[in-house]
Amino acid sequence: MPKIVIDQLSLFYGQNQVLTDVNLAVHEKEILGVIGPANAGKSSLLRAINRLYEIDYARISGKIRLDGKDIFDIPINDLRRRVGLIFATPVVLPGTILKNMSYGLKLHRKIKKQELNDTVADALQAANLWEEVKDRLHESASTLSGGQQQRLCIARTLAMNPEVIMMDEPCSGLDPISTAKIEATMLELKKTYTFILVTNNTKQAARTADRTAFFLGGELIEVDKTEKIFTKPADARTDDYIRGRFG
Amino acid sequence: MKDKIAEKLLLFIAFSAIGSLLLITFFIFQQGIPLIFKIGLGNFFSMHWSPTRGQFGILSMIIGSLMVTVGALIVGIPFGLACAIYLAEFSSKMVQKTLKPIIELLAGIPSVVYGFIGIVILVPFIRIHFGGPGFSVLASSIILGIMILPTIVSISYDSLIAVPNTYREGSYALGATKWQTVVKLLIPAARSGIVAGIILGMGRAIGETMAVIMIAGNALKIPHSMLDSVRTLTSTIALELGYATGDHRAALFACGAFLFIIIITLNIIAIRITGRRE
């Protein structure tokens, strides 16, 4: 059974429809790349899955299931813990690195200091950030570089013990070395987690994704194995986009 | 050419505002400070205020001012903060657009009207239900608490709104509820603005005169409970300056100088706190 099943999903901001009848399945422990030009509805897709669209006063129709269960039947805090979201610009919260890491952990339950420290260290290691920050956990998180901040956000999400990690153009503001680090982290982590990677960089999808979905104007044009999408796509529009003929 | 003249004219007007502030400051201190040196700091901060006998101790008034100010903060902070949080985080755009101007309108009501409402409604209510004369610390605290609401609400609201939206999204994406986001993230992030609002409100409460004269009772003694009558520094100046002469008059100016220092200090602290954030 797929991890996430999206069935006839449409999303509206007021009168403006940004997603139209999307049907898509996300498999367990894969990296699903999502590509497409601006306004294709890629970010809206992610915001629909963890119900973050609600704070924008958007509305959706259709069904989204996580492990077969309708996302509206899962308590919203639990849903957002299980399905993490990494934003395009790293959202470090005010305060120290440690505070950033423990913010989410302390929301859901009382946690002992030792357990907290262990979880934080594990998550930072998994995000390949531990060596760089282990001696400066009490420094302000905003002193980190952009790439480090983004890995901190990944670590913060990992600490919540999620099942799915959604990334919304996680490397858009980063240099090639930081990007490579994040991609390497992702490839390691996919043994444990399911990824949805929205990216404007088609090469990034080609490098990392197992399958790739192409969106255009709020519709899913096609989804297939990444090699297939990048070599013999079924739809001419996909081919045009990948070859840079529009978008 | 026209531009040059307009520029010079505006510069002159701007400086005359600063100039009048300097003049007022100079005048108050020049009139008041010599008396403090004449009677000594110890006598000035003693308990005995009896101008006919040459005693000018302002301690009971300082305590009076302090009590009504603290009382005003106890009333004003919870209501003001709750109001700001509701407006900034929980209400719809429509509600914000209606409620915020109404709250700011509170600042435009003349203080004599607040005093009037206090005399007609609050003072009798306290006298009947809690005892005492009704003209009291409690009545002043409640009225002052309402009077400082606009300051606390609008500055706290502005600093909550100024917290970047990405923080909210980041917090929700980690599974925080709206309430957790407000308490654990937004209030700490907006803390400096909220504190500045409270300090400015405090300055308003200390400096308020008319409403307090009307409902505080103005008895010259240190109050022992919230139901006792009280006299503040500002009330004393307003009540006595009309007939005061000589040292008495100078003593009132000294009170003014003391108030001036307190309020300037509070404002400087507030500006420092908000400044540090940016």
Describe the structure.
The complex is a heterodimer of chains A (247) and B (278). With 247 residues, chain A is of the alpha/beta class. Chain A has one domain (4-242): P-loop containing nucleotide triphosphate hydrolases (Rossmann fold). Helices cover 38% and strands 26% of the residues of chain A. A six-stranded mixed β-sheet of chain A has the order 6-7-8-3-9-10, with helices on both faces. A four-stranded antiparallel β-sheet of chain A has the order 2-1-4-5, with helices on one face. In chain A, a hairpin with a 2-residue loop joins β4 (59-66) and β5 (69-70). In chain A, α6 packs parallel to α7. Chain B has 278 residues and is mainly α. Chain B is built from 13 helices and two strands. In chain B, α5 (111-130) runs antiparallel to α6, α5 packs parallel to α11 and α12 packs antiparallel against α13 (246-277). The relative contact order of chain B is 0.15. The chains are: A alpha/beta (247), B mainly alpha (278). The A-B interface holds A 50, 52, 55, 76-81, 84-85, 87, 89, 91, 93-95, 103-104, 106-108, 153, 156-157, 160 and B 166-177, 180, 184-185, 188-189.
Here the CATH topology of chain B equals MetI-like fold
Structural class of chain B: mainly alpha
Distance between the termini of chain B: 37 Å
| Structural class by secondary-structure content of chain A | alpha/beta
CATH architecture tag of chain B: Orthogonal Bundle
Tell me the name of the CATH homologous superfamily of chain A.
P-loop containing nucleotide triphosphate hydrolases
Profile the largest sheet of chain B: 2 strands, antiparallel
Which strand-content bin applies to the residues of chain B?
Answer: under 5%
Main sheet of chain A, how many strands, which sense, barrel?
6 strands, mixed
Helix content of chain A: 25-40%
How many E-type strands of chain A? 10
CATH architecture of chain A: 3-Layer(aba) Sandwich
Rg of chain A, Cα atoms, Å:
18 Å
Give the terminus-to-terminus CA distance of chain A.
34 Å
The tally of structural domains of chain A comes to 1
Share of helix among residues of chain B? over 70%
Weakly predicted, low-confidence segments of chain A: none
CA-based shape of chain A: globular
- Given the C-alpha coordinates, what overall shape of chain B results? globular
Order of helices and strands of chain B: HHEEHHHHHHHHHHH
Question: What is the residue-averaged pLDDT of chain B?
Answer: 92
